[in-house]
Design brief:
mainly alpha; 3 helices; 2 strands; two-stranded antiparallel ribbon
């Protein structure tokens, strides 16, 4: 995930905004990241990522902490919501279309 990729789809909050919020406001607890535009208070998908960014800010920086692409992140969020774990906030970025595998040409 790059700095300008969206982390909180419900409230359209980028990783850059979260990282800068942590740097500027130096929250004492990960739960205080909700003050960054409401991040984590919609469907809940991004909460683990918010905790990770908070914890990363407390420790030594890693070379590449995000191995997911933005598309993989969005697909995993969609699966999380479709499994009934959260409900997107009004105005959230819509879920991506389901990926289907089409059969190959006949042999």
């Amino acid at each position: 995930m790059e700095l300008d990729d969206t982390i909180c789809y419900c409230f359209h909050i980028s990783k850059r905004k979260i990282v800068n919020f942590i740097r500027v406001y130096q929250p004492r607890r990960a739960s205080q990241l909700t003050e960054c535009g409401g991040a984590g208070t919609g469907c809940g998908w991004c909460v683990n990522y918010l905790k990770r960014y908070f914890n990363d800010a407390q420790a030594e920086p890693l070379a590449n902490p995000d191995a997911l692409t933005p598309a993989e992140y969005a697909q995993q969020r969609a699966a999380y919501i479709k499994a009934g774990h959260g409900k997107p906030a009004a105005g959230a970025i819509p879920l991506p279309p389901e990926q289907t595998t089409e059969p190959g040409p006949p042999s």
